[in-house]
Design a protein that fits this description.
Beta-Lactamase; about 170 residues; alpha+beta; 4 strands
């Protein structure tokens, strides 16, 4: 009887160990790139400097891939509304992986509008995704220039400043 109980216990333990090993094989490891704070600050400063050189005072924002704000840098003399607008542009481009100008074009052509479910999204130009290859690692948004196309130009200048280190 003792042998039977010991055998059953050993068999049960083996079954549990096998099930645990099989479950562990289902766990995957994923490696992702993360934009450093130093590069984020440098990109935001370059975006602000680009607009400043043209006579415009803007705010620049960098969002992580999840849309969470990494930095918000307000240029000297930039208006208050630009803070929220730059944040939303960076958020949108980080989540969607396209510029906010491209997003606006998709909406105008009758595409699905995720703003119905996420009011944080922005559909005015000025947000650009930050990518390493095809991997989206964040977004940069600029606001305060006289027009979204000018905001986007400054955001792209900020991205160009760090492009050689996005590898």
């Amino acid at each position: 009887m003792l042998r039977s109980t010991a055998f059953t216990a050993a068999l049960g333990l083996a079954a549990v160990m096998t099930a645990h090993a099989q479950a562990a094989e289902g766990v995957l490891t994923e490696t992702r790139h993360v934009l450093s704070a130093d590069l984020a600050v440098e990109a935001a400063q370059a975006a602000i400097a680009s607009c400043k050189a043209q006579g415009w005072n803007i705010t620049a924002s960098i969002a992580e891939r999840s849309g969470a704000i990494k930095i918000l840098l307000v240029g000297d003399g930039a208006g208050g509304v630009g803070r929220e607008s730059a944040r939303r542009k960076a958020y949108t481009s980080a989540l969607l992986g396209v510029s906010t100008d491209e997003f606006a074009k998709r909406l105008k052509s009758g595409g699905f509008d995720p703003k119905v479910y996420d009011p944080q999204m922005a559909s005015d130009a000025g947000g650009v995704p930050i990518k390493i290859g095809n991997e989206i690692i964040g977004g940069i948004g600029a606001a305060g220039a006289p027009g979204g196309d000018k905001d986007e130009g400054c955001a792209k200048a900020g991205l160009a400043k760090i492009a050689d280190r996005l590898k």
